[in-house]
Every structure is written in C-alpha cells, then in structure tokens.
Design brief:
5-stranded mixed beta sheet, alpha/beta
C-alpha cells in the first residue's frame, strides 16, 4: 500500500514540474538596416511565441540574440522590448565569423519555464534561415 501511495505522489509531482527549455529560431534580412532587423526579429519572436502557445512573458527566463558579423546597425533585443518584453532579461552578441556561412542572420534562443517536453517545443526558422535546419518542420 505504501508503494502505491509513493508512486501516486511521484506522479503528481511530475505533473507539477516545470522545466527550463530552449526554443531556437532564426531569420535573415536583406540589408543591415535597423528597421529591417527590428521587423525580422519581431516576426520571428511572434512566430516562436505563437507556435509554442506562449501568451504571457512571465515564464520566459531570458532571451539570447545573436547576429552575424555583417549586422551591426542595431540590437535585435529592441524588437522584443517593442513587443512588451520589458522585464525579460535580454542580451545580444555576435556570432563566430565562420567563413561561407549564411549571411545577415539573426538567431534567437528563448529560454522558458514550461511543463512541455523537449519534443513538444517548436523551433522556428524563417526566410533564408530555413537552410540552417532543414530537419525542422518550420523550415519546410
């Protein structure tokens, strides 16, 4: 009897467990212009939030933004602030300049506290960035 109670308690705790999950995304722009970077980043973040059914910013632990070295006119994180993410910790950095890689790319790692499994997380790749992960459904 006590083993059954223990298993029931363990099952209840598992249902209440939140995990820190990473949601990846990437997009591209045609030129290094602040407006284009903000627009592409807003589009990417909106699609990431929609695909993963996130309608509240409170569970978002942080967001990392990276850009390829050919993008330096603005911070992609400004687009997140414009969407209302005023308390979410955000940081921008530059990608390693690997030769012959996708140019003018913006990448995102959104970390969220969620009950979803890794398999339930939907990663989003838009525009020319679909070439980065052809195995991901959004890249098709």
């Amino acid at each position: 009897m006590s083993i059954l109670i223990f298993l029931m308690i363990e099952l209840m705790l598992m249902e209440e467990t939140y995990w820190l999950r990473g949601i990846r995304g990437a997009t591209t722009v045609e030129r290094d212009e602040a407006g284009l970077i903000h627009e592409a980043t807003r589009e990417l973040l909106s699609e990431m939030l929609k695909a993963n059914e996130i309608d509240d910013f409170e569970p978002i632990a942080s967001i990392f933004f990276t850009t390829t070295p050919d993008l330096c006119s603005t911070f992609p994180a400004e687009a997140a602030r414009a969407l209302g993410m005023t308390t979410v910790p955000l940081i921008c950095t530059q990608e390693i300049p690997v030769p012959n890689r996708l140019p003018k790319a913006i990448r995102v790692m959104l970390q969220i506290n969620t009950k979803k499994s890794q398999k339930q997380i939907k990663h989003i790749y838009l525009r020319e960035a679909v070439s980065l992960r052809p195995d991901i459904v959004s890249a098709q």
